[in-house]
Amino acid sequence: MQKYRIYELAKIYNKGNDEIIAVLNKNNIEVKNRLNSVDEKAKEILDKAFASPSVKKNKRPPMRTVRFDQQGRPTGSKTAEVQKKSYSSYNTAVSKPVKMGMLEEAKKAEADKKAEKESLQRKNIINEGKKEGRQLPTGKMSVITHDGHMGEQIPHKEGQPARTERNDHPRKNNRPQGGYQQRGERSQGGDQRRGDRPQGGHQQRSDRFQGDRRPVGARRPVGDRRSGAAVKPAGGLDEQPLIPQARRDRPDKKKTKKDYERSRREKESGSLMARSLNQNKKKKHVAEKKATVYPTEIEVPESITVKELAEKLGREVSEIIKYLMLSGVMVTINQNLDHETVEIIAEEFGAKIIEAEAPAELAEYVPEADDERFLKPRPAVVTIMGHVDHGKTTLLDALRSTNVAMHEAGGITQRIGAYQIRYKNHKITFLDTPGHEAFTAMRSRGAQLTDIAVLIVAADDGVMPQTVEAIHHAKNAGVPIMVAINKIDKPGANPERIKEELSHEGLLCEEWGGDIIMVPISAKKKEGLDELLENILLVAEMQELKANPNREAYGIVVEAQLDRNRGPVMSVLVQNGTLHVGDGILAGKSWGRVRAMTNETGRKMKSAEPSAPVEILGMDSVPEAGEHFYVMDASRARNIAELHASRAKEEEQRSVQKVTLDNIFEKIKEGEMKQLDIIVKADVQGSVEALVQSFMGIKSDEVRIAVVHSGVGGITESDVMLASASNALIIGFNVRPDANARALAEKDGVDIRLYRVIYDAIDDVKSAMAGLLAPTVKEILLGHAEVRQVIHTPKVIVAGCYVQDGKITSNSMIRIVRDGIVVHEGKIGSLRRFKDDVKEVTEGFECGIAIESYRDVKEGDQLEAFRLEEEVAEL
């Protein structure tokens, strides 16, 4: 049921609020003020009490008539009374039906008289037109008669004789304004001037041959006015003003293209009121279409921002932020929300959270098991492990007859190298791992992707920390271990001592009753290499290493780098299947298509069988070393890579620790700590990983290292700009900056450090951290003195002292001790012996000491002279 407020009803009935309230109260409807609401029943009571306001009188604004003289100047206007009288009668005739009350009899009585007068007027006008030699125009003037019907009449005002005008010089100003004369009229009337063309419309071509034109010099009859204003006929109180018929409504007018267009628009849109109603309907229809249906269930990942949650809920971000602010939580549009907060927000907006599940096609790829009937023997993958500088790369050089070790920076390996050799018609794949302590992750990765681990131990050096670490990696990976005791040609080599040391680590040789094969070799002189290779083939044969070459390949990423000319390059080891050029490939967060493939010698290959190490081009980004790669459809690989990237982003966001009351003290402490920002760029992904781990492993209570950015490839301008913005140090490992980057670094004062040996980089970073440490302040005691006399002066107090031990210097600090308690500590203002200023006074002498900013010195006080020295702090 519709409700109405009192003030609305007052507007409807055009009454005051008090009057409406009074009527309702009389009818037992309790209303107190203008804001109260009433129902339809109350409105019916008011309808009975007041006249219905639905019918409103149509009022037209008064029309202003302006007359012009022959010179075109306005001569005045009708008086307000005449206008009011004229248009009040016009409105009475047009806007509302004529009442048949008091005027009914008068109208009936004058009907006949009126008709006679109209016919007489028509005859007079016709006769007058004949006398002047002109015809009446076919365009007619309409008049409203006393009975409300439209009649045809061309009246003229009574008492105005037809005036003539000089015909020799008709003036331009005599023409009415606003129209133009057609060509047909000129042809009939001769030389007629422009000033005589009609006003208020265009004379149509249908009138060309109607003779609607007065002779030259003849003045237009007063009743023949073609203006937009109504002409009042003469005589009669009830006579209505003349209304000119619209030219486009005349039956004799030939319709033009504009008329048809106007008619079409009127049919389509109707009146202004109809158009507005149609627009309102359209708006309502559009509003109904835009009515949104909010979701009742949403899938939310583990980490989500305010903007993402608003999109899932179908709400505006401002609504979410407003609700959280009202709940006392201040957030921004890109701030992450925890799961509990997301649940509360979803419940508030009528949605239920369901666990997001990855589509089946984006699930983690797991290779299918191979049928044993399709398995074929494959080459063994052997990893060379051991301590730094024990001869791992030299052994591989001897096996490959190359000289890689001579070209390595610092003589040490700093990346995993994969090689394949052929021995007695058998292929063996070797992986060379770094031995430096910084490359722990590389050694662990090498042990996990290998079949046999060969442990290199220098006979003259013994078992070292990295040797023990390599043993643990191999054992954890479940890989069989062989030991190659190298450098047996050196003086002081003792293979038996090596066997004994290895036995303490759980490696017992076969000679001593164990199962570990130990082969003494000399990689430099190529001694014992055949025996080592024979044993490798023996162990591989015992393991029965097999793979299926007739399937889609999968394997592991050994190393990856960004080449300036070739783009992302990754070294992979095919573990199963055959890899072909053109295959779609997935490796962690990277995907691509194998564009080109080369072996370790740089030879291009079309396919790679199991246990083959190859370099692949065509990835979209540099993958992480140690990632597994799989061959699949390129579109599916892209989808899975994007899924992995989003998961990695969520993990990174979750790792950001938020400030709570429990850890706020730790955060304050961290804010007080100094920070060394570093940007790490290296040639391969493994080196980046090793450098970052080494830098983060440097611990200090006062200085910490923050790796702002790390990546593979050369140092670019973007790296320099990032370093300039974050005030960071750039560490380049086996890379160089380009010319633009170097010029920008010199301009912005960015420090770029380039290294080829990893421990040089680690040592320099440690030195930089030590430079950020606050220096250690050390106190050096100089001597003691006793106050024996106090001399008061207007400016300072002078203490007469006796130096008991050491010395007192003029630039030293002084400490006053009274009864074992330090009462003051400050500087010496001046030091004198008798009346002379001195630099120092030694033991056994007396002196006068003026103390700055302190006057409470007493006899018997002990004075201690000391000096503060700063020492460089060390990590």
Task: List the topology elements.
Blueprint lengths: L3 E2 H8 L3 H10 L10 E2 L1 H10 L16 E3 L5 E4 L2 H15 L8 H29 L9 E4 L5 E3 L30 H7 L52 E3 L12 H13 L2 H18 L7 E4 L3 E2 H8 L3 H10 L9 E2 L1 H10 L3 E4 L20 E2 L2 E7 L5 H9 L16 E7 L2 E7 L7 H9 L3 E7 L6 H13 L3 E6 L8 H10 L12 E4 L8 H15 L2 E2 L6 E10 L3 E10 L2 E2 L3 E4 L2 E9 L8 E2 L4 E7 L8 E4 L2 H22 L8 H9 L1 E9 L2 H12 L6 E10 L4 H10 L2 E5 L5 H10 L3 E4 L2 H15 L3 E17 L4 E13 L3 E6 L2 E13 L2 E2 L2 E3 L3 E6 L10 E10 L4
Parallel strand pairs: 8-11, 13-15, 13-16, 16-17, 17-18, 28-29, 28-30, 30-31
Antiparallel strand pairs: 1-2, 3-4, 5-6, 5-7, 9-10, 12-19, 14-15, 20-21, 20-27, 21-26, 22-25, 23-24, 23-27, 24-26, 32-33, 32-39, 33-37, 33-38, 34-35, 34-39, 35-36, 35-38
Helix pairs in contact: 1-2, 9-10, 13-14, 20-21
Quick structural gist:
The protein is of the alpha+beta class. It has 22 helices and 39 strands.
Helices, by number, come to 22
Shape category:
flat
Name the average pLDDT. Answer: 72
* Quaternary organisation of the protein chains: single chain
Please characterize this protein's 3D structure.
By secondary structure, the protein is α+β, with helices and mostly antiparallel strands. It has 7 domains: 4-49, no CATH class; 67-249, no CATH class; 297-357, Arc Repressor Mutant, subunit A (Orthogonal Bundle), CATH 1.10.10.2480; 379-544, Rossmann fold, CATH 3.40.50; 554-654, Elongation Factor Tu (Ef-tu), domain 3, CATH 2.40.30; 664-772, 3-Layer(aba) Sandwich (Rossmann fold); 776-871, Translation factors (Elongation Factor Tu (Ef-tu), domain 3, Beta Barrel), CATH 2.40.30.10. The protein contains 22 helices and 39 strands. The strands form 11 sheets. A 6-stranded mixed sheet has the order 14-15-13-16-17-18, sandwiched between helices. A 6-stranded antiparallel barrel has the order 20-21-26-24-23-27. A 6-stranded antiparallel barrel has the order 32-33-38-35-34-39. α1 (6-13) crosses α2 (17-26), α9 crosses α10 (317-326) and α20 (717-726) packs parallel to α21 (739-748).
